């Protein structure tokens, strides 16, 4: 089973302007939430670890997890409110986020909330703004440190500067996770923001030297740059009619983990045995999953039958 750790929230898309204001289309979101749902839709066992509010939005989030077949065993119920994100789209469908919420449920996970995990959890994924808001950020780092010797650790920084504007804080947390992660997926834009002036290859080489087995830098329609234990290659992109790119990175992440699992390599020892040919197939599979998500409104991730065999 995969355990995805991080935020769970609602994305609000302005759908129309009225005389008295706006109408909104509210969609469930949060990068780690999406990854858990994406894994379940791809036929993998998945669970979510997050703080979840007892408010109506929190209850709706939990109901969706149940409906999607995501294990809710490790949800931490909180009285704090649910995080809201206002999403605007630029002309190419790229989202711009404004977050609303202070001391929300997903940012209030303390070390006392950390779970003892059974052996059935073979891989843990961490991502996005929950990594830098406290106390959740330090708690998730502790969970990763406690488990990295026995379980595959997956990491996607997915930074949001309108939650935490200090790039240095993001950079420090990324470098901490690069010491213990087995898989890092990051977008080209996020990498440039985190390490301005560095080229992609230098970041990949630095992380690879620390023991990161698989590093994937996504580049939108241009595909991805990949490092498998220091050996680099490029994966081509896929041309589709883009509605928006919301959830595309999460779909890519879920498909990476699914691909590893389908080949029997989604474990700590397994990822160290992935061949270059297998890696190419897994990344191509992830590109196809992300492209399909871009053809849909919001984070509507594909199901396994929507995608080709590895």
The gross shape turns out to be globular
Extended strand count: 14
- How many individual helices? 9
* Low-pLDDT ranges: none
Strand content: 15-25%
Based on secondary structure, the structural category is alpha/beta
Order of secondary-structure elements = EEEHEEHEEEEHEHEHHEEEHHH
Q: How would a textbook summarize the main sheet? A: 8 strands, mixed
Q: Summarize model confidence as the mean pLDDT.
A: 93
Give the proportion of residues in helices: 25-40%
> How many whole angstroms does the radius of gyration measure?
18 Å
Termini distance? Answer: 20 Å
Spatial order of strands in the largest sheet? 4-1-9-10-11-12-13-14
3D structure, described in words:
The chain is an alpha/beta fold and 310 residues long. It has nine helices and 14 strands. It has helices at 31-41, 56-67, 136-147, 167-178, 188-194, 200-209, 248-262, 268-271, 276-294; strands at 2-5, 9-18, 21-29, 46-49, 51-53, 76-78, 83-89, 95-100, 123-127, 152-156, 183-187, 214-218, 224-228, 231-235. The chain has an eight-stranded mixed beta sheet with strand order 4-1-9-10-11-12-13-14, sandwiched between helices. It has a four-stranded mixed beta sheet with strand order 3-2-7-8. Helix 1 packs across helix 7 and helix 7 runs antiparallel to helix 9 (276-294). The longest helix has 19 residues, at 276-294. The two termini are 20 Å apart.
């Amino acid at each position: 089973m995969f355990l995805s750790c991080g935020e769970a929230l609602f994305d609000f898309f302005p759908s129309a302007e009225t005389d008295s204001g706006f109408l909104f289309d509210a969609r469930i979101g949060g990068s780690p939430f999406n990854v858990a749902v994406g894994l379940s839709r791809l036929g993998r066992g998945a669970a979510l670890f997050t703080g979840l509010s007892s408010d109506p939005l929190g209850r709706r989030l939990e109901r969706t997890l149940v409906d999607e077949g995501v294990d809710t065993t490790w949800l931490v119920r909180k009285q704090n409110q649910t995080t809201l994100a206002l999403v605007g789209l630029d002309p190419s469908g790229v989202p711009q986020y404004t977050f609303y919420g202070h001391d929300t449920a997903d940012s209030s996970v303390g070390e006392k909330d950390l779970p003892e995990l059974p052996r059935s959890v073979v891989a843990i994924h961490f991502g996005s703004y929950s990594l830098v808001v406290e106390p959740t950020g330090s708690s998730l780092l502790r969970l990763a440190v406690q488990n990295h010797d026995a379980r595959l650790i997956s990491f996607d920084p997915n930074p949001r500067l309108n939650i935490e504007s200090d790039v240095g804080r993001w950079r420090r947390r990324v470098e901490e996770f690069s010491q213990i992660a087995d898989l890092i997926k990051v977008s080209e834009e996020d990498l440039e923001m985190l390490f301005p002036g560095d080229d992609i290859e230098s970041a990949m080489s630095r992380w690879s030297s620390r023991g990161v087995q698989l590093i994937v830098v996504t580049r939108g329609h241009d595909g991805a740059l990949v490092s498998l234990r220091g050996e680099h290659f490029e994966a081509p992109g896929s041309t589709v009619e883009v509605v928006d790119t919301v959830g595309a990175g999460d779909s890519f992440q879920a498909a990476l983990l699914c691909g590893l699992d389908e080949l029997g390599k989604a474990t700590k020892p397994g990822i160290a045995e992935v061949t270059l040919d297998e890696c190419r197939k897994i990344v191509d599979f992830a590109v196809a999953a992300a492209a399909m998500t871009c053809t849909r409104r919001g984070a509507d991730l594909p199901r396994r039958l929507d995608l080709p065999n590895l």
